[in-house]
Specification:
about 80 residues, elongated
């Protein structure tokens, strides 16, 4: 995988991980203030979630890169076997 493809894969993985991490630890108020959404979190902890997202995405990206570079899965072999 080239460096540009690696960046694209990392960005896609990062966004997917972000959307899975966002609901972690969300607490909604018992009595929301007038004009606020009843589902709005009390303290969303976005900074912590961005750091966790970055670490998990780096780990997942590393595993994807390992699989691609090791040759365990190769899409090039399937193209040469096509009838």
């Amino acid at each position: 995988m080239g460096w540009l493809a690696g960046i694209y894969v990392y960005l896609i993985v990062w966004w997917l991980v972000l959307f899975t991490v966002l609901p972690w630890g969300v607490k909604v108020p018992d009595k929301p203030e007038p004009g606020h959404a009843s589902s709005a979190p009390i303290n969303p902890l976005l900074g912590r979630k961005l750091i966790i997202t970055t670490l998990i995405a780096a780990l997942v990206w590393g595993l994807i890169d390992l699989v691609i570079l090791s040759g365990w899965i190769s899409f090039r072999d399937m193209a040469s076997r096509a009838p």
